[in-house]
Design a protein that fits this description.
The chain is built from 15 helices and eleven strands. The protein folds into two domains: 200 residues, Periplasmic binding protein-like II (D-Maltodextrin-Binding Protein, domain 2, 3-Layer(aba) Sandwich); 85 residues, Periplasmic binding protein-like II (D-Maltodextrin-Binding Protein, domain 2, 3-Layer(aba) Sandwich), CATH 3.40.190. The longest helix has 20 residues. 47% of the residues are buried. By secondary structure, it is of the alpha/beta class. The N and C termini lie far apart (47 Å). The strands form two sheets. A six-stranded mixed β-sheet has the order 2-1-3-10-4-11.
Length: 330
Amino acid sequence: MKRTMWLAMMVVAVVAGVPGAGTAQKMTTIRVGDQIGSELDYGPYWIAVEKGYFKDEGITTVRRTYPNGPATLLDYNKGEVDAVMAGLAPYMQAAAQGSEFVVLMSITKGNAPLVARAEVKSAKDLNGKRVGTPGLGTIHDTMLTLYEKEHGIKVEHVSAKITDLVAMLEKGEVAGVLCWETVAATTVRTVKGAHYLAPLPVIPGAESLEVILSRKIVQANPDVALGFTRALLKGMRYIDKHEDESLRIIAKAMNVPDALEIARLGKGQVKTTDPYLELKSSQIIYQALLDTKKISTERVKSFDDYMKRFVDYTFVKKAEESLKGWEPTK
C-alpha cells in the first residue's frame, strides 16, 4: 500500500514537471488579413494551418478576406487585423501615408499574370484597349504600368473587384486582365478563348507579396513574431519538398469546384519558397510608384529608407537557425 502511494506521488511529480502537462497551452490569436481567391499565393500560410505549425508555436490565426491589398491595409490601420498578407506596392503606399508595420518576410514572387481574350495575340493588340486590374493601389496595377513601358503601349487601366474581372473579360468589357492567381487560372479555364498572354511579370523573379505584423506586437511579443515567422517558413519548406500534397491542401482551402485543377494551372505563375524580398524588382516597383505619383518622399525618403525602417529579417534568420536539420513530413 505504501509502495503504491509512493509510486502514485512520483507519477504526479513527474507529470507536474512536464511543460504544459495538466494545463492547456496558452494560445495567442493573430487576426490575419488577405485577399479573395489568393490561397495559392499564400500557400505557406495554408500549409501552416493544415499541418498545425501555428498551433505548435502557440498561435491561433483568424482569417479575414478583402477585395485587394489596399482594402486590407485600411482595416489594419483601424486595428481590425494584426497581420496582413498583401502586395509590395500597397505596403509602400501605406508607409508613405504614415502607417507603421514590420515586414517579416516575402511570401510570393511572380503572381502577376496577364490574361487576354482570344483575339489578343500580342502586347501590341492591347494598345489603346481596356485592361482590368484589382485596383489602382495594387501591385498588379503597378505591374500593368511596367508592362506598358516594356512593350511601348498604352492601355486604359480599369479598376474592378477581383470577383468581377472574369465576367468583364467574358463580356468583352476589357481586352485583358492582370490579376493574381488563382483568379487568372479560373479565367483561363472558364472564359472561352482566354489565354495567358504574359504568364510572368516583365521583371524576372519579380517581388510580389509579403507578410507584415503589427509593430506593437513585434515590440511587445517578439516570441510571437518569431513563432509566426517560423510557422510560415515551415510552410515554405513543405511546399518545396511536397508540391503535390501542398496543392491538395491549398485546393481544400480554396473550396471551389475543380480547385485542384485550377491550382495546378496557376502554380507555374507563383513562387512561394523564398522568404527574402527580390531587391531589383522591389526597387523598380518603388520607382514606378514614385513616377506615377502614388507615393511621395515626404515620409519615406527613398527605397533604402523603406527597407531600413520597415523590413526586419531578424525573425526569418532566427527561424532558419532554429530549423537547421528540420525536414517536413507528409
